[in-house]
């Protein structure tokens, strides 16, 4: 059985809090994303999503349906994906790719009004760019200045 067969996407629950708060990232990755412990509470239009390997949280990301999305897309039905991270101890096992492959069905079921996911990826973060391209995200050709340089805007149609 493939090691990614048990990957699921779930909405945040307090039962995952201790494990999410213990996440670590390599120094070269921390510049591109945020750890889950930075998001203690869900705010209006911001959804904390946990990447689960069976019953163990291995990753995390945010989905936004706030005004912030308009910085990346003119589509009123788009959502913004940010802060994708896989705990350092769980990297290299295909979890991020499998989670992103599940994104389409998860969003369609949980956010039926959404027909597009957009994200910004730093031009220096080639590993993330390759991951997003492999799972169907397309470069929109739009660019945005980010905190540490140019970001490519990518989208996935749902």
UniProtKB/TrEMBL annotation:
Keywords: Transferase. One of its GO terms (molecular function) is acyltransferase activity, transferring groups other than amino-acyl groups. It holds the Pfam family Acetyltransf_1. Residues 7-158 form the N-acetyltransferase domain. InterPro entries: Acyl_CoA_acyltransferase, GNAT_dom. PANTHER family: ACETYLTRANSFERASE-RELATED, N-ACETYLTRANSFERASE DOMAIN-CONTAINING PROTEIN. Transmembrane segments: none annotated. This is Acetyltransferase.
